[in-house]
Amino acid sequence: xxxxxxxxxxxxxxxxxxxxxxxxxxxxxxxxxxxxxxxxxxxxxxxxxxxxxxxxxxxxxxxxxxxxxxxxxxxxxxxxxxxxxxxxxxxxxxxxxxxxxxxxxxxxxxxxxxxxxxxxxxxxxxxxxxxxxxxxxxxxxxxxxxxxxxxxxxxxxxxxxxxxxxxxxxxxxxxxxxxxxxxxxxxxxxxxxxxxxxxxxxxxxxxxxxxxxxxxxxxxxxxxxxxxxxxxxxxxxxxxxxxxxxxxxxxxxxxxxxxxxxxxxxxxxxxxxxxxxxxxxxxxxxxxxxxxxxxxxxxxxxxxxxxxxxxxxxxxxxxxxxxxxxx
Length: 327
Description:
This protein has 20 helices and 2 strands.
């Protein structure tokens, strides 16, 4: 019953729609200790002995943790990151849907800042589950279901699916080939009317797909990722000065020059792409220099730092490619 108000339903036109929870529903769950109770169920009831029976409580936990920092704190405080529990949640025998929910929870906790006694990243480290996560992504076929979450009916799930995909490509290129199908959905989200944080996560994930290798450059070009990033940077800049002069953004909107805004993340990802010849040539053909010129008047220091990073990479590549002068 806890999950019902957060479920998706089939709309009148046959599409999947998010079912809006009653006002205050999740606050009530938080006050009543829903996360703590669900963690206790997973630890003590034997439900994990029958993995299919754990699908529902794990899904509800995932939705709560993704939607609220306070729920995330309650989850950690209740022992949700205890090593023995998380390793059982990431066991090979568990259903893919359940494993994806667990990965989304871990990915969300990893991005939350440490405050006072709340340090989720330290708790994740102590859980010693990195090999479990690597195994789940590489050998359990979870990348596909994770990519599917980019089109989930729930906006928080879409947002954190982008973030999790970016994490999967951050440290090395091991998963790049498996992540190739994510490029199209990420470009779609970047060009959509999603909230700023989702679009920033999509932009960052695209940049991480060239962070460690040029293997996906061709696919990124074919999917229109480079143009989408350039358009994002320029379209956001149109409103930058107005917002910086005092207009207020919505609760899910970032100021255009904010370090976590779509424009800043798009510029950083473009800088990653400039490190690879194939992407660099495509960006020059797309007139990235005009984008740099247009954004040069932006007063935000983060924007200027990332523009300088792009220019440095372009100039370094140009110098390296120049023929030696005759003596």
